[in-house]
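Q: I'm a student working through a structural biology exercise. My instructor gave each of us a protein and asked us to get a predicted structure, then write a short paragraph describing it. Mine is Putative dehydrogenase. I'm not confident about reading structure output yet, so if you can add a plain explanation after the tokens, that would really help. Here is the sequence I was given:
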Amino acid sequence: MSRTVLFYGCGWAATNIWMPNLRRAGSFDFLCIDQHLFAQAAARGAVPPCLVLDSVEDLAAQTIDLAIVASPNSSHAEHAQALLTRGITTIVEKPVCLSRQDCAAMSDTARSSGAQLLRSCASCYDPHFRAFVDLVAGFDVSEILTVRAEWTRTAGVPSSKWLTSARHAVAGSSLDLGWHLLECVAMLLGYQEMDLKDASFRFPDASGTAFARWYGTEASGPEPVVDVDLAASLCLETAGGTSVDIKTSWDEEVSNDAVRFTVAGDRFALELETIFGLSRNGPRQMGITGHRHGERVDIRLAAKTPGRAHEIMIRQYAAAGFDPELLDQDLGQLAVLATAAEQIISQHDACREQALGSGDHHVSG
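A: Happy to help. First, here is the predicted structure for Putative dehydrogenase. I'll explain a few features afterward.
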């Protein structure tokens, strides 16, 4: 029996990630709420990928089995609330919400309506990251002293105003790449609360912006304005005293895109080098190195196709009937992520204002 999925926002993530993977995972029909979809499709000489509704008020005449919020970052909480209020099981793309207040409101609504609230967290399903998690799991969380997480791209700025305009995106690489890393770090550390201790951001200058070619399917017309951070360095500390360093960059001067995690304690140090997302410019050799239990670790990891983590995540979500309990998700985890994200966004906004006012493109909070 076919199930009906509603997309609130039907941009690149909905049409290029969710729709094809849901089709492979089962029988689904699609609807969407997106006021700009007709115009975007017409500009490309195409037709919309699904039936388009004008607003949530039109849902009264529809039977919706699942909703996916894939609108701009600034709208995620508002759109999720509108769906949860109607008792609809809802998956929210990252960043799920931007503040503790939004998190509390969404959680309260989900509890009162009986709707399920799930996070999209594809990077946690990445096969290379899961292999890394399995190695780290041999040690208690209390033994982890430091965690470093880094995602750098060369010429990797998304060609979408949804991700590069502060009005839509809220923040740049620190939120686009940073939420992925934050979720992975939180998973490694058992979702402990994290406090932001220091932050620095790099904003665009007059030299221009290098947009990601593999993201070009969404771009049409002139290149989007970029008025959010291109790179960020974030220093956090968990309630248990673990030091966490997160670095993100859309346009680093490096030969290839890369994701690195380093986890260390008194008896071990492990590093994963891989790539996340849909980039086709990852490291030539990906693997896990370091030492544990007095033995050297050097594991070569097999190549993976771009988007593999999304494919695994969506298949497992469908197999679990989109039940967060079966997927080891809970609202307490979301509260941890929202608390950290709120602090990062606050520092980003203050530094952005300073950068725009002074012309200094490297700003520390």
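A: Here are two points you could use in your paragraph. The mean pLDDT is 91. The first strand starts at residue 3 and ends at 8. It's a good idea to check both against the output above yourself.
Q: Great, thank you!
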